[in-house]
Specification:
Blueprint lengths: L3 E4 L18 H12 L7 E3 L6 H4 L5 H12 L16 H20 L5 E4 L21 H12 L5 E5 L6 H7 L5 E8 L23 E6 L5 H19 L3 E6 L16 H18 L4 E5 L5 H16 L2
Parallel strand pairs: 1-2, 1-3, 3-8, 4-5, 4-7, 5-6, 7-8
Helix pairs in contact: 1-9, 4-5, 7-8, 8-9
């Protein structure tokens, strides 16, 4: 059985985007309660998050933008710049803790304390742009982790696979000119789904052209369509890139019972995608894989899929 790290901290529940908001603390409560009730908590390697140093967050986000978020939280505002980015006085600190949770997982894997990891962190991150909050996201957790792996640990090639039902516009834009990061996204077609980016024609820019692969899928797509896209188009490109580390932006909102989109993935579909990517990580990246929570708003489905994913990471 592989040593699977698990990042969770009750402080993540302190980010309160509003009673009306789908990205609510109950999401993490459902996950952690499942990990406890199944006995998985006793099997994983607990990884304590830390507040990400600003010097690392500033490698991805504009300092002026970071300051705007800090000031908005200090003033007690309830919305930060766009209607879907609800905040509270503690949001800024908890967003730093979310970034630091993924950095702590990177530390653990690179230093041999865990073979892989799952990060149950919030707020999520993949919509956050260099200088703009979007889609419930403030700091781009996965993007900071990728930069950290490249610059702190000297890696040359990091892959990010994003299967959230919504395209990870922020992650794509942050790395679209960087050939060290291969970004692959499977998502509902931007013609029908937020945020309206992620067309196949978006392939990267300049030296990074060819290192972005978008595989948009029409509404109503299920396991067969997702697995065909991943296995016929995504995996060959990833294998050719030969990443030294694999990061997964795991939203479970493409499930047929999720309220925020229109896809038809099942629990088994997510299991199969996870197995495919874990196999790639073993073959190309010495098993180094970190999965970071993004979306997923049906609490039972979310707990089911995260439990399955952690068991898969363990090798079950």
């Amino acid at each position: 059985m592989r040593r699977t790290g698990y990042v969770y901290d009750a402080r993540y529940l302190r980010h309160q985007p509003g009673e009306w908001h789908p990205e609510r603390p109950a999401r993490l409560e459902a996950i952690h309660e499942r990990i406890q009730s199944t006995g998985l908590l006793e099997e994983v390697v607990r990884i304590a998050p830390y507040a990400a140093p600003l010097s690392w967050v500033e490698r991805v986000h504009d300092p002026e933008y970071i300051g705007r978020l800090r000031e908005a939280c200090a003033r007690g505002l309830s919305i930060f710049e766009v209607p879907d980015c609800g905040i509270c006085p503690e949001t800024y600190e908890i967003a730093l803790l979310a970034v630091g949770g993924v950095m702590a997982a990177a530390d653990a894997v690179m230093q041999g304390e865990a073979d892989n990891a799952f990060c149950a962190v919030r707020p999520p991150g993949h919509h956050a742009e260099k200088g703009r909050a979007l889609g419930f996201c403030f700091f781009n957790n996965v993007a900071v982790a990728a930069r950290y792996l490249l610059e702190q640990f000297g890696l040359e090639r990091v892959a990010i696979v994003d299967w959230d039902v919504h395209h990870g516009n922020g992650t794509q834009h942050l790395f679209e000119a960087d050939p060290r990061v291969f970004y692959l996204s499977l998502h509902e077609s931007p013609e029908y789904c937020y945020p309206g980016t992620g067309y196949e024609r978006e392939k990267g820019k300049g030296p990074g052209r060819g290192f972005t692969l978008n595989l948009p899928l029409p509404p109503g797509s299920g396991d067969e369509a997702y697995l065909e896209a991943l296995e016929k188009e995504g995996l060959p490109r990833l294998e050719a890139f030969a990443p030294q580390f694999l990061l997964i932006s795991a939203g479970f909102d493409g499930h047929r019972e999720d309220p925020l989109a229109h896809q038809k993935l099942s629990r088994k579909g997510y299991q199969a995608m996870g197995r495919d990517l874990a196999r790639l990580a073993r073959e190309k990246a010495d098993g180094r894989l970190i999965t970071v929570l993004e979306g997923g708003y049906n609490l039972t489905v979310l707990a089911d899929c995260v439990e399955d994913h952690i068991r898969m990471l363990q090798g079950e």
